[in-house]
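Input/output pair, single chain:
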Amino acid sequence: MKPLRVLVVGWTATTGGIEHFLMAYCGKMNRERVQFDFLCRFSPIACQKEAEKIGKIYTITRRSSDVMRYYREINDFFREHGHEYDIIWDNECMFNDMTPLKKAAEVGIPVRIAHCHNPQNMDKSAIGHVQGFLHRVNHHSLSRYANVLWACSMESAKWACPAMDLPCEVIPNAIDAQMFRFSEQVRREVREQYGLEDCLVVGHVGRLQYQKNQTFLLDAFRHLHEREEKARLVLVGDGPDLTELEAKAVTLGIEREVLFLGNRDDVNRLLQAFDLFVMPSHFEGFGMAALEAQAAGLPCLLSASVPRETKLTRNVEFIPAEDPAIWAEHMLNMLERHEIRRDEAQTIADTGYDIGTAAQRLEDKLIALTERKRFQRRFLMTPKTGASGVPALNKARADIEQIAAEMGYAPFVLHAPDSANGSVWQAIQVGAKTLGDWVRAFYRMRQGDLLLVQYPYFPVKGYGVARLALHLLRWKGVKTAALVHDLDSLRRIGGSAARGSDQLLLPGFEALIVHSQRMESYLRTQGVTCPMILMEAFDCLSEGEIPVREKSRMVAIAGNLAADKSGYLKDIGKVPLEWQLYGTNWAGSGSTRIEYHGEIAPEKLPETISGAFGIVWDGDSLDGLTGLYGAYALLNSPHKLSTYLAGGLPVIVAKNAAAADFVAREQVGVALNSLRELPELLRAMPEEDYQRYAANARRVGAQLRAGENTKRALRKLEEVE
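Output:
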């Protein structure tokens, strides 16, 4: 099989984020499957020798140097070589020059990827303003020449293509996490080399230019040094602001305390010597240097302008880069904690940012793009929150929205409210707005697009209109799918409308994402024949610090504590354990074994919840799953399971629950016939068994906090024919 030929555009003469990204990904891919060449406007380029090992380098004149020569050379290149390539992959911070993509389209390169690495113009010079103007002119026509949009974040995607009229996906800025694993020996060697043995070292890695805001950093460091004489600042990188920054250090009287180390190929070693990593950027597409610092186990202080997706470990803080004195205060506080450096390389790998697995996924993605007959735009349909009768977006739905947005799903917001009072007039309003929503969908979407609906569909009583609309969209060539949060007819919520929706609307979708194998089997008995993808455990996005779990007699129960759902709670006081309750609708108990903590914000619950195990149980009895909600647990994967695991907490489930299969396979807890068995289980459990459950819960929890289950399900969905 011939390797895929990919032409990469965007490599520059300075080692920066794009160059690190391309070196990491292109260098890791299998040359027998994907072969890269590089079209460059600079000579030599950064890391030239390494790039030459990956593929051929073609150099053309920069447009800003000689316009006529640039157009002549790029025309000649595509006329001579354009037919050799399956893909052009144009990596830019802004698309002020569309010529490579335009020429690729003219010569018929089938896959044309525009990949944006920044969320705004980073060049504030006069030339930069001109380039920014050209970008704003060009981004309206990006979809004329590119047919795929990639970005390091959704902010960058919207900067490149505000209309979001291209199939879009966020590509992680992955690293070789093991390269940055903390080493005490390397730390001693580097600190000795630079005379930093007894110092508190604040480190920064980045191109020396306006975007990275090193001028502010020098001001903040001066305040820090006034309070802590042992503080030193190490700046790794080069750029147009070097001379200005060196002069400012002299003016501030800190030139002896600031080390300018220039561009380095041993950043992984230098990070070992730091005590704190700082990034005060005006803006960032992602913040790759912060990812490397986290892999090295460093505490990180980042500007509030850095995307929150950058935070993958516990010791990361975001504050606005506005007041140098405030930054100095935060730097001092973080330095004085003297925390033991943790090995965070595995954490980075578990969240999908390790280059080994990320490069394999991207390699598969490139190959899959060449096999497509058309390019999907993707939409996520969701109700407008705050509308009358529509429930506020719960955490599960909100997390799906966030993850889908990161994967390039454009929001399609419904404006129709659900009927609240049952009046004829409101029913007419609901019907009219529902019809209007689906008419908008019909005219906005085109053949090859994908529409994903979070189910249950709102307004529930509009399921008839929705059912008809699905047929019309299918006729138009739009693929429709639903991600099932709940089957309300089984919970006897929503009355006849919920039954009609479950029985008539669900079968109209072309693919479903469902909780479990048992839910799939049930839906098959109800006439659903489309492909189904298993979620197994919903993601639970969380950024809080996860406590280390220890074996004890303390167990937690979180969620809806109402008697009709959790009737078994009336008897838990009879079980000799320390019960920690979190949630709503607790009627109270006289038992001294129960401590009620009230309702905790869902995004804070994983880090707040206490105990050795989390209980996943529903129904009226301690002795198995009973009643309406107990029967529902035979099919569903409750969100409380995800909440516990996101907090690194092992779980207890009923043996006949749908979630028991997942728990057993991942070894994140124990399945019981009755909660009365729990005291003896805890008494007899060896410490090593508990630690295995806790370690696995932490591993799976890291994946859930990063949205990996949803990403996997959506990737499978996009492969469904």
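The two ends are 24 Å apart (CA to CA). Residues 424-444 form the longest helix (21 residues).
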